[in-house]
Task: inverse folding
């Protein structure tokens, strides 16, 4: 396995667990490469996401990736490089790997999840995202996706990451990953279209670090389509049907960069989540 040139997904496959499939009704919807899309192949359009593209909404055709695919790029294969629990570093790696294997697309549509975590590869050779959500680690151990030793390592990383996190380090992380994305896109003449995935953790992380986006590069500003207002969440706090529609609307009618409006929309999303969940905005952050 080469993590920077892989065709299949190397993340811990949450959906391999019987409990996950029974709850999210994902059976037979994930291909052998680990993605909820067509098998990987050359395409002019690639979609990057995380829990939003893997969501178990009752009507799958209403996911934002399906709406963009059906209404804007129906002539292209449906290539969705997204899995549960992944983050921005995963997206950089997957885009690079896709290009190495299948050539560069002309368009990339991307929803940025929380951006303050990093990837780690455990002793079994599987990647996972280190952020703060303890419940993800305990779920994987409970369902046999990782062993007790790997759980202990993961929990230690999460605890350390909480103590080390600060806005200056988050700026370093963000700038590094945005620089990778910008370099890849410029090198291959890819038109980037991006916004944020307003799930629980993404809402809180953006609001706490909103100042980091005031001075992002001109390329990333020009590629930003605007921040959708969160409309609804499912019980697992992934985005609901109306929020998927809001994301699609941002991609279909992109706005020019406006930092003041970004701040305003971010605060509205935070207030919505704070009213709905109180201080426990990130589900399963401290327990499971």
Result:
């Amino acid at each position: 396995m080469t993590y920077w040139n892989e065709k299949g997904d190397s993340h811990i496959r949450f959906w391999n667990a019987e409990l996950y499939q029974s709850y999210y009704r994902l059976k037979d919807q994930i291909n052998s490469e680990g993605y909820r899309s067509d098998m990987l192949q050359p395409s002019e359009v690639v979609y990057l996401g995380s829990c939003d593209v893997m969501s178990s909404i009752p009507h799958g055709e209403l996911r934002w990736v399906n709406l963009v695919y059906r209404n804007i790029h129906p002539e292209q294969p449906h290539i969705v490089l997204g899995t549960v629990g992944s983050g921005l570093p995963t997206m950089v790696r997957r885009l690079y790997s896709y290009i190495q294997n299948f050539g560069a697309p002309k368009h990339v549509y991307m929803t940025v999840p929380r951006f303050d975590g990093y990837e780690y590869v455990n002793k079994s050779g599987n990647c996972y995202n280190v952020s703060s959500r303890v419940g993800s680690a305990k779920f994987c151990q409970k369902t046999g996706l990782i062993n007790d030793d790997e759980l202990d390592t993961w929990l230690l990383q999460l605890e350390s990451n909480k103590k080390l996190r600060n806005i200056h380090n988050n700026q370093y992380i963000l700038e590094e990953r945005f620089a990778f994305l910008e370099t890849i896109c410029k090198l291959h003449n890819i038109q980037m279209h991006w916004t944020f995935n307003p799930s629980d953790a993404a809402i809180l992380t953006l609001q706490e670090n909103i100042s980091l986006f005031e001075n992002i590069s001109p390329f990333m500003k020009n590629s930003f389509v605007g921040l959708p207002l969160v409309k609804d969440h499912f019980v697992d706090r992934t985005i609901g049907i109306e929020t998927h529609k809001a994301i699609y609307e941002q991609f279909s009618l992109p706005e020019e960069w406006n930092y003041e409006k970004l701040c305003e929309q971010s605060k509205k999303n935070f207030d919505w989540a704070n009213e709905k969940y109180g201080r426990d905005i990130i589900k399963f952050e401290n327990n499971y």
User: Anything to note?
Assistant: Residues 1 and 82 are 19 Å apart (CA to CA). The chain has a mean pLDDT of 90.
